[in-house]
Amino acid sequence: MDFAKLYSLQSVLERCQGLLWRDFTTVSRQEEFPDVPAERVLELLDSEKLQASEEELVETMLHWARQQRGQRMVHLARLLGRLCLPLVDSVFFTDVLEADKLVQQCNNCWALLQEARLYHVYGREISSERTRPRRQSGWAEMIVVIGHNRSDISWTSLTEKLDPASGKWFPSATVPGYGKCEFAVCELQSHIYLSGGQLNSSDVWCLMPQLAQWVRVGSLQVGRQQHKKTCLRGKIRCPSCLICSTKSPSCHQWLSSMECYSVFENAWKPVAPPLLTVSSSALARCSGKLYIIGGAVNNDSNTNK
């Protein structure tokens, strides 16, 4: 590549660059790679066209740093900071990255490791440039739409997903036998959780993208509809809601309880209720706190709190 740059051989340079991006893992195993200067390595890691897994990149950077340990130790945190460490396999993270003595001796790497640990527990509550997958990684963020109304009385569990990169909608797995409305949906650790719905359903389903199917998980302790939920500190929070009488659906009652779901326990547990009982509110999390915004306090009025 240096030869092509020196003599302005643009076509040769482009072919070399393409080969480097496409076969980076193979190129990095060549004898010459450990001699590549730090700035050139950083430039490579910044490329969205790099076709290698984050685990392969971690091993390559550690190998590069070990070749001249005394001089390259100062570059280790910068190199690892260019990688998507929160997205590496959790077993690899524990057995390889955290266990590496070079990483353990680098104080500047501790913040990067802590960010990855928090991401493995809290999911997308932790956000930085390192939690965004590379374009060539095979990971893709999707927008998912669940359910629609075919008529006044017919609700379906149709699920579709939008790939923002291509701008195309694709069919996804439907919730088995779940023709309900007024349910709540949220995302936790790349899984989508759907709960409740008419009439006062306590069902909870989880869409697992790896399997492309819905799996039933622990049920709510109290059936809910017209409710919202969101994840906070690695758990799903489901605050107050509206419930209907099974004998007279037009008879409404506002429920003030809040439940919390733990993925590890696969169970919902009651937690402190909100100060104001509302339904159809908006939820937001910020700085480790849950904010409940607006909502209906009865059949005739809403709140601005």
From TrEMBL:
Pfam families hit by this protein: BACK (PF07707)
UniProt name for this protein: BACK domain-containing protein
InterPro entries associated with the record: BACK (IPR011705), Kelch-typ_b-propeller (IPR015915)
SUPFAM superfamilies in alphabetical order: Kelch motif (SSF117281)
Domain called BACK: residue spans: 2-98
Organism listed in the record: Electrophorus voltai
